[in-house]
UniProtKB/TrEMBL annotation:
Keywords: Signal, Transport
Cleavable signal peptide: 1-37
Gene3D superfamilies, sorted: Periplasmic binding protein-like II
SUPFAM superfamilies xrefs: Periplasmic binding protein-like II
Protein name per the record: Extracellular solute-binding protein family 1
GO molecular function annotation: maltose binding
Family: Belongs to the bacterial solute-binding protein 1 family.
Top-level taxonomy: Bacteria, Bacillati, Actinomycetota, Actinomycetes, Mycobacteriales
Keyword Ligase: no
């Protein structure tokens, strides 16, 4: 999971396209991307946009797959335009507002329902056999239709050092026997009492804004038994976000800072686990290889704690969809299905250190295979991943949740701010006629 662009929302009643316009940060200019090769005259061009311009490994892998597809047939020619991630959100937003989206776009998974509701994406026309092989968290769905598919997922877990846990006589948890909430809390207190570390735990609170706050911390809420919205109806957050379980989560979250177990600030680059100033880090699998390089066999990837309703981590990363602006959707879907072959999914995992989207691809990726160094990430994803609420309201939910947790972190009354969050979310849902639910 990488940092996402900011979202803004409106509580004005409007239709899907108008509400989409109000929901996103707009840009007056369509920013230029990096284009790939020239198009043979005899082929139909399929244009794809992505956010990989600042990531040479990802861009090279995408280019490799495009070249393989273009060489495999003579009807279509896929041409990519790659943008730096910091401007990609503005670029696709501007294109969406003017009806100029390319055929293929990559989209952050939680945003897909909003795009589907706004009629910017087509339901996927990819064989069910292919989709059935995918990790559920790599599929973007809305109203029982699948609109996007991802090549990989990532997993959050607790990065720790075995020597530290053994020194403090703390049980090493497993997927089968994770820490209970009480055990986790006791471990943090024990480490704090030792005085060896600046803080027992790094939660990444130095990441100022964006999707991190919802992605990283809503799983704790869900493990307490609460949620960001009532998933039975998707029409209200009442009871889910302000019920007794949610209040218990909020009080626990606030106490982490009040007790000095977690910093309210921190470096967005999160060097603390690597420089030894914290004992534990709530971190993504994308940093695991770096942690192994730093700590070797002492490094552990541990499951999340169970606060009563089971361990939970967030699911879904960047995914691919076909826009309703696309004049040749059959070619776009043919390309996407081609890219879902195991050998190509495995290439992304090898280059980016991300979890393969299928079992067949996992078997082709040594670091994620049964005895691979990164295998714990696969198991965490399969056992504990919960996708963020698949509703067009999610952008509002995420923004409200972030503000709410920041207020709680700084000492606000937990029940009051949770009730405010419910009012804000429910007002937006009502203003948009329930977003189709």
């Amino acid at each position: 999971m990488r940092q996402r662009y900011r979202r803004r929302h409106s509580t004005v009643r409007s239709g899907p396209r108008q509400a989409f316009t109000a929901a996103l940060t707009t840009s007056a200019l369509l920013l230029a991307g990096c284009s790939s090769a020239n198009i043979p005259d005899s082929r139909t061009e399929i244009v794809m946009w992505n956010h990989a311009a600042g990531n040479p490994e990802e861009l090279a892998t995408i280019s490799e797959v495009i070249d393989a597809y273009n060489a495999s047939q003579d009807q279509y020619f896929v041409r990519q335009e790659a943008f730096p991630q910091l401007v990609y959100g503005d670029a696709i937003t501007a294109a969406a507002l003017t009806g100029d989206l390319p055929c293929i776009v990559d989209i952050d998974g939680p945003i897909v329902p909003n795009w589907a509701w706004a009629e910017l994406l087509r339901p996927l026309e990819i064989s069910q056999e292919t989709l059935d092989q995918m990790l559920p968290s790599t599929l973007g769905e809305y109203q029982d239709e699948t609109y996007s598919v991802g090549y990989y997922d990532v997993a959050l877990g607790i990065h720790a050092r075995q020597s530290v846990l053994e020194r403090y006589e703390i049980r090493i948890p497993s997927i089968e026997e994770p820490w209970s909430g009480e055990e986790f809390d006791a471990a943090l207190e024990t480490i704090a009492e030792g005085g060896e570390f600046r803080y027992p735990l790094d939660l990444g609170t130095g990441i100022a804004d964006g999707e991190w706050w919802s992605y990283a911390y809503s799983p704790f809420l869900q493990s307490f038994g609460g949620d960001q919205i009532d998933r039975d109806t998707y029409l209200t957050a009442e009871g889910a976000l302000n019920g007794p379980e949610a209040v218990a989560f909020g009080e626990w979250f606030q106490s982490l800072f009040a007790r000095g177990l977690v910093s309210r600030e921190g470096n967005p680059a999160r060097p603390e686990f690597f420089d030894g100033s914290v004992a534990l880090s709530w971190q993504g699998s994308w940093e695991a290889l770096k942690a192994y390089e730093e700590w070797g066999d002492d490094m552990l990837q541990l499951p999340p704690p169970d606060f009563g309703a089971g361990p939970v981590i967030g699911g879904a990363s960047w995914q691919w969809g076909v826009s309703t602006s696309c004049e040749n959707p059959e070619g776009a879907f043919e390309y996407l299905e081609f890219t879902l072959q195991p050998q190509y999914l495995a290439r992304f995992s090898e280059e980016l250190g991300v979890i393969p989207a299928t079992q067949a691809a996992t078997e082709l990726t040594p670091q994620f295979s049964e005895d691979g160094q990164l295998r714990p990430a696969v198991d965490l994803s399969r056992e504990f991943a919960m996708v963020r609420p698949q509703t067009p309201a999610y952008q509002v939910i995420s923004s409200v949740f972030e503000k709410t947790l920041k207020d709680i972190m700084h000492g606000a009354d937990v029940e009051a701010v949770l009730n405010r969050a419910v009012r804000d979310i429910d007002t937006n849902i009502r203003s948009n006629d329930g977003y189709g639910f």
